[in-house]
Amino acid sequence: MAERQKRVVWNARTGAAALVAVAVLAAAVYVTLGGQGNREVAAECRPAAAQAAALDKQIGGEVAGFSVARQPEKLSDLAFTATDGAPTTLAAFKGKVALVNLWATWCVPCRQEMPALDRLQAALGGDDFTVVPISIDIGEPGRPAAFLQSIGVKSLPLYTDRTTKVFEDLKGKGIAIGLPVTLLLDRNGCSLGHINGPAEWDSPDGRKLIEAAIGKGAGGA
Question: pTM of the entire structure?
């Protein structure tokens, strides 16, 4: 009888401990997810929230997969290598709306998408807008440049990140899933939205979205 009582007490204590553990885990998950879902938007990115929301009505067709940023983040500190081999960040494009595209030569959809990005840069690139294509190839260093030359790219620069850290940073933020991944940033380097997978960026649908972000046309601010 005494032995049975001991087992009952032990089971009760074990059950209580398990309930406490579950409660602690649930609280931790709540705090973690709640913090992500309700994080405060940086003051510099607050205007981007309204701008991103306005882009919703421009999404469709060739850019139907574009997802607007509900809580825009400052991404101007993302680092990579400039065309001259010097380190740089997205802050270098402050003042311009930027379409940042992460790609690699081994990524077939990336290769298929690149001509459209080149045509988009030729059509809209300038003081207000730029395409920022960043290769994350880690193989032969000359391969990205050779690929761009082979398909006749004329308007796009070659930026690189052989560490792939820029991709890992975006993956950690829940933005990048695979390649290609393309981000649209406002003039302060705040996210307006992104798309995983290729898109025909120089199509009427793509241009309408970009021009609205720049502030041109009927959809612009």
Answer: 0.81
